[in-house]
Amino acid sequence: MPAQFDVVVIGTGPGGYVCAIKAAQLGLKTAVVEKLPNHGGTCVNVGCIPSKALLHATEMYAEAQHNFAKLGIEVSGVSVSLEKLMAHKAQTVEQNVKGLDFLMKKNKIEVFRGTGRIAGAGKVVVTAADGSEQTVETKNIVIATGSEVAGIPGVNVEFDEKAIVTSTGALSLEKVPGKLVVVGGGVIGLELGSVWARLGAEVTVVEYLDTILGGMDGEIAKQFQRLLTKQGFTFKLGAKVTAVQRTGNGASVTFEPVKGGKAETIEADVVLVATGRKPYTKGLGLEEAGIEVDERGRVKVDRHLRTNVPGVYAIGDVVAGPMLAHKAEEEGVAVAEIIAGQAGHVNYDVIPGVVYTSPEVAAVGKTEEELKKAGIEYNVGKFPFSANGRARSMLQTEGLVKVLADKKTDRVLGVHILGFGAGEMIHEAAVLMEFGGSSEDLARTCHAHPTMSEAVKEAALATFFKPIHS
Ligand code: FAD
Ligand code: NAI
């Protein structure tokens, strides 16, 4: 019997749904299997989208409280309705979910509701919520099952999503906690910590490393930490968390200095544990299907995103690489193209990362630390937003742009931005790097005035000569 489908994608997060749409657009007969009622995965339902709704709303609230008066706008009695804020979040998610339902229909993608299990090459068994099973036959299978909360290795944390929460609970707290302790000074900790800090919580971040945002450029991370401290954050760095426990009124966190010393316990109304995520492959039947995983449980793939079993591919959080929605999407597109016989490819050197705090942090390419470690000689150009006219007009003068370019060839190797709108500005650097551009290319490109982006041009200029405005 011929296979029913050309491609069956298991999981409809940003990796899976994008892969399915692209495959359908390329003329492949495509189906998806999703175990949850909504498409969109972590990103749309409990990740990128709801967190950005809360970040935007609370940033506006903070602006109204702290900056409006400086701009000459007099407002009084600014207050927040947590209920309405959460309604805005829910509506944003709903609109995105509806959009995905529409796209599935528009592209004639067959949707199977249930948990997908790979019963060998070309066979996916779908178990519906009522326990009924059906087998779907396909030429190709794409695993896009994403990730789940990792917890703290070696520490038993009992999440009740009320006093001890994952990011999912932290997106839906019923009231503003007086004290919020965040375990992990990574992206989730700082974004969701910002949401609740702006709403009035006293936020303490306990981080194992001696820096926040480990992996980001060290200079940028340090300046960012200073800005967050000004916003009221308290940081306990170089601190290893050894226990998270429920107490009468909330929860407590015990940690000890990584370098040795006395343990300390702090009490909180709510503890958010944000210590990373791990691949999710439960119930997929990887072992029976003979699909290999690495030492961290990630599905092993080659550079064409193929697993060791012919006709089975894997993309997104479930494979190695940064756990980012847009990385998952790029891989989804690449796999669809590869299956359709085209030259699908992901450029892992140019995947931007954005932290949607205030100000934002954005980066693409290598950090100074990475270049030093790799023994690559480079030039650095920097430009502070305090010297940018548009930034002054908006009272958004915090932060800087930093451009790293190869010393010999001037090719841009990394761009790091701390500042208002960094997450939008980073893309001119990404496009430049995709085309192998130099810092001189960037510096000689006319930028509209007055814009924050002029700081990017000036930082590029500073790598090989002198900026004009500082
Ligand atoms: P997922 O989105 O996790 O989707 C996997 C899907 O597979 C799910 O729908 C799941 O139900 C389904 N599934 C799993 N197993 C099966 C099975 N056996 N059968 C059927 N279905 C199955 N990234 C960014 O780039 N920008 C951000 O701003 C950002 N913010 C985030 C904020 C938070 C709070 C969190 C937690 C994450 C955030 N991320 C962000 C990360 C982003 O959400 C992930 O990188 C992205 O969702 C990964 O996409 P994916 O398709 O690989 O997996
Ligand atoms: P993360 O990896 O960004 O940060 C986790 C932090 O916890 C690290 O700094 C780590 O050193 C620390 N940590 C680990 N164990 C610890 C311990 N025992 N004690 C103290 N600290 C400890 O992971 P996070 O924030 O949970 O995010 C998960 C994923 O979601 C990330 O990979 C990220 O890419 C993605 N994400 C992306 C966003 C974005 O792009 N804006 C937003 C939110 C999440």
Automatic annotation (TrEMBL):
Residues 351-460 form the Pyridine nucleotide-disulphide oxidoreductase dimerisation domain. Its cofactor is FAD. Keywords: Disulfide bond, FAD, Flavoprotein, NAD, Oxidoreductase, Redox-active center. Residues 5-332 form the FAD/NAD(P)-binding domain. InterPro entries: Class-I_Pyr_Nuc-Dis_Oxidored, FAD/NAD-bd_sf, FAD/NAD-binding_dom, FAD/NAD-linked_Rdtase_dimer_sf, Lipoamide_DH, Pyr_nuc-diS_OxRdtase, Pyr_nucl-diS_OxRdtase_dimer, Pyr_OxRdtase_I_AS. Binds 1 FAD per subunit. Its EC number is 1.8.1.4. It catalyses: N(6)-[(R)-dihydrolipoyl]-L-lysyl-[protein] + NAD(+) = N(6)-[(R)-lipoyl]-L-lysyl-[protein] + NADH + H(+). It is an enzyme of class 1 (oxidoreductase). It comes from the Bacteria. One of its GO terms (molecular function) is dihydrolipoyl dehydrogenase (NADH) activity. The active site is a redox-active disulfide bond. Belongs to the class-I pyridine nucleotide-disulfide oxidoreductase family. This is Dihydrolipoyl dehydrogenase. It comes from Chelativorans composti.
